[in-house]
Every structure is written in C-alpha cells, then in structure tokens.
Design brief:
Structural class: alpha/beta
Order of helices and strands: HHHHEHEEHEHEHEHEHEHEHHHHEE
Strand order of the largest sheet: 1-2-6-5-4-3-7-8-9
Strand content: 5-15%
CATH class of the largest domain: Alpha Beta
Distance between the termini: 35 Å
Radius of gyration: 21 Å
Oligomer: single chain
Number of helices: 15
Shape: globular
CATH architecture of the largest domain: 3-Layer(aba) Sandwich
C-alpha cells in the first residue's frame, strides 16, 4: 500500500465506501484493488450489488460526520496515510479507517498488548499494572481494551509513559462507565481508537473486531488471567494469525481465571513472569512491514466485463462449497478451481449481496438467513 495524503473529497469517499452496509475491510480492500479509487468503487457498486437495499451514505451525511469529528478533536486516519499505525497497516485486511482521540505518535513506537479477565484477581491486576509500567519505561506503548480488570490496570500502569485503548463502540462512547475518569486521562495523555462511527454503541459482535485491532497494533500480546473460554483468547488467536508473539502468565490450576493462560503455554505461548521475559520475546522481533508497489511496475489490467460469465459460474460453485462455518478464503479459492481474481470477485459480490458473511480475519461463511 502506497503511503499518501488524501484530499478532503478523497477521504470523504473512503468514509462513504467504508460506511456502506456490507462493505467490511475485506470488501473494501477488494473494491480498491479492482477500482483503484473509492470514488470509482462507489460508482461501480450498483452494477455488482445484487441487492438494492444497501445504499451508499450521501456526501452530506459523511461531511457531517467529518465536521463532528473535527469539533470533538477526533482524527480520522485512512490506512494509506502516514499517521495510520504502521503495525495495524500490515494486517490483512486492515481497517480502512480508524478514529483516534489523543496522541498518534505513541502508535508508531513499539507496542505491546496486555489483555485478560474482567473478573481479575487482586494479584493479577497488580501484575498487569507493574509490567505495564515497566514496559512503558522501557519504551513500549501499552495497548488494551479499556475493559474492567486487567485492561484497566494495564492502562493505569502505563498512563504516564503512553497507553492506547481500542474501543468496541465509537471513539466518543465511554464503556464501561466506571472508567470515565481513565477515558478522559487517556484522551489527554494517551490515545483512544475505534473503527466504528462516532456515536456508535457497541454490541457483542463488535468486540472480536476490537480484539483484532488490539493484536494488530502490537508486536505481541501478553495474556494475564483468562478463562478457557473467553474473549481474551480470541485476541491471542488473532495475534497468532497476524504472526505476532503470544505470551502468557501462568497461574494456579485451581483458579479457573488462569486455565486459559496455562492452556496457551501448553500450546506454545511464551511463559512470562516479569518484564524481562517480555522484552526478551519482543526485542528481536522484526516489525511487520507493508510492501509498497514498485512505481516502475504496471500491473496488467484485468478485463472484468469480459470475466462476468466466469464470475457468475464461480459464485454458483462457491455457494455450494460454503457452509455456515467460516472457512479460509484461500481454501475456497483452491477448491473452486478458478483463478484468484475470479474467485475473489465472486466472493466480493456474495458479501455485498448478503449471500455470504465475512469474519474480521477474512474467513467466509454462507449466510444462514439466505
């Protein structure tokens, strides 16, 4: 992805496209790959969207959102812009746009995520606060999710040195309310981040997307107190998929809050007992990079109009291959027998029409409601 500044109208078009129903990060990426600009993608949507109930937000609505962001001191960053966090840009697909309140500079430092149980023990919260403080002093930005328990302790420990919270709702939505004071302190000294529109109130389905951003911002994820089935382990799974380090603090086998951590260690996560263990895991990691296309290389134009019949055939076959269980897109492409371009175009049309559902990590499933 080439790093470039966007004009007002270009950013408005990015927002219009990303705010269109059923245009998630995967669809946004594929549309930009195919049509090169958000404006061209918006113009093409009616021809590739089989359902007509999905309407691109009007310019006036998006400009009102941009004005509101400016009034609230919110920076809207597109993935191609220089201020966008470089580690997050390396995630495929990355959020096309994020909103940030506070400092963007701390997101360009080495980052480490600390996550764990909301119902954390006193010793777990103390440990989170201690290692967050020591990581901050060692030059790391601490990332977490502003939840109760471990998240709150991690943010508090790194408040002076620099910490960022990823929110499930809009960047202006304080949740939980008991962290109102911490939220305002982080707005002044740290950073608050969201990919949701201003004013949006999070639902349960938004937190896996938030967790994917937490891991995507970081070189590694540190897990302190996690039950065997918890949202914290979703963050650890995303970290593995993003080729980030996973570390876990061991706990008593009698405490259900640590069974998830112990299981991660059994599966190969690094066992950590102090900040030295964490730094030893992180200091030799090469930061993720995003390859920028060579300006001297002109990619051959694909004849999308001429491929329409093949895309329709691929849609039919891929529909038969999909199930309600999310499946890797690469696996679907391999089994379809079609080229990557044709299969990807078919899955894009299926996502936009609502025939398929796409997970934050790109896995695709048949929409059970169809």
């Amino acid at each position: 992805m080439q790093i470039k500044a966007l004009s007002f109208s270009e950013k408005r078009d990015w927002l219009r496209l990303s705010r269109t129903p059923r245009v998630g990060p995967v669809a946004f990426r594929d549309l930009m790959t195919r049509y090169k600009t958000a404006k061209s993608a918006i113009e093409a949507l009616p021809s590739i969207m089989r359902r007509k109930d999905s309407v691109v937000p009007p310019c006036e609505a998006i400009e009102a959102e941009m004005d509101q962001a400016e009034q609230l001191g919110v920076k809207i960053l597109a993935a191609c812009e220089a201020d966008y966090p470089p580690y997050l840009r390396a995630v495929d697909p990355c959020p096309p746009l994020i909103s940030v309140i506070g400092r963007t500079d701390i997101l360009h430092k080495p980052c480490a995520a600390i996550v764990g149980s909301r119902n954390a023990s006193a010793i777990g919260q103390r440990f989170a606060r201690q290692i967050a403080n020591e990581l901050g002093e060692a030059g790391y930005t601490v990332i977490s999710g502003l939840a109760r328990g471990i998240d709150t302790s991690a943010h508090g420990g790194a408040l002076v040195t620099g910490t960022a919270a990823v929110l499930g709702g809009g960047v202006d939505h304080i949740y939980p309310r008991q962290n109102t004071e911490l939220y305002h302190a982080m707005a002044e000294k740290g950073a608050l981040i969201s990919e949701s529109p201003i004013g949006y109130r999070a639902t349960a389905r938004d937190f896996p997307r938030r967790n994917r951003i937490i891991s995507g911002l970081s070189l590694g994820v540190i897990v302190i107190e996690a039950a065997e089935r918890s949202g914290t382990l979703i963050t650890a799974r995303y970290a593995l998929e993003q080729n980030r380090e996973v570390m876990a603090a061991p706990g008593s086998p009698l405490d259900p809050r640590t069974k998830g951590c112990n299981r991660l260690i059994q599966q190969g996560a690094a066992l950590i007992e102090n900040v030295e263990d964490i730094i030893a895991c992180l200091e030799n990691i090469t930061p993720p990079q995003v390859m920028e296309p060579n300006g001297d290389y002109d990619q051959a134009e694909f004849d999308w109009d001429g491929a329409k019949a093949d895309i329709d055939k691929a849609r039919e076959l891929i529909t038969a291959l999909l199930s309600p269980t999310p499946t890797s897109r690469d696996e679907i492409i391999r089994q379809s027998g079609f080229s990557t371009a044709i299969a990807t175009a078919a899955m894009l049309e299926m996502e936009l029409s609502g025939d398929a559902l796409v997970e934050p990590d790109g896995r695709i499933a048949l929409n059970p409601e169809i």
